[in-house]
């Protein structure tokens, strides 16, 4: 099974869809900041991984 999985989420600033590559070998609870592919705003991303599966993605504005 690949160690990276492609996931989708909507930007909390502009509402546009974004793609994210998640490294499932990076641990069960991951957090990082990415820029929106459309409006370039910083997005705080929290990912939960169980085994080799992404079970949830939570996104919020970086300063909220």
Describe this structure in words.
The chain is mostly beta strands. It has strands at residues 4-10, 17-23, 29-35, 42-50, 53-61.
Main sheet strand line-up: 3-4-5
Q: What order do the helices and strands follow?
A: EEEEE
Overall helicity:
under 10%
Number of helices: 0
Gross geometry: globular
Please identify the structural class as seen in this structure.
mainly beta
Query: pLDDT average, as an integer?
Result: 94
What is the number of E strands? Answer: 5
Explain the layout of strands and helices.
Blueprint: E1 4-10, E2 17-23, E3 29-35, E4 42-50, E5 53-61
Antiparallel strand pairs: 1-2, 3-4, 4-5
Structural key phrases:
mainly beta; 64 residues; 0% helix; two-stranded antiparallel sheet; three-stranded antiparallel beta sheet
Summarize the structure.
With 64 residues, the chain is mostly beta strands. It has strands at 4-10, 17-23, 29-35, 42-50, 53-61.
């Amino acid at each position: 099974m690949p160690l990276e999985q492609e996931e989708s989420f909507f930007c909390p600033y502009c509402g546009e869809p974004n793609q994210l590559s998640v490294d499932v070998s990076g641990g069960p609870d991951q957090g990082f900041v990415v820029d929106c592919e459309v409006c370039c705003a910083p997005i705080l991303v929290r990912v939960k991984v169980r085994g080799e599966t992404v079970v949830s993605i939570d996104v919020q504005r970086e300063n909220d």
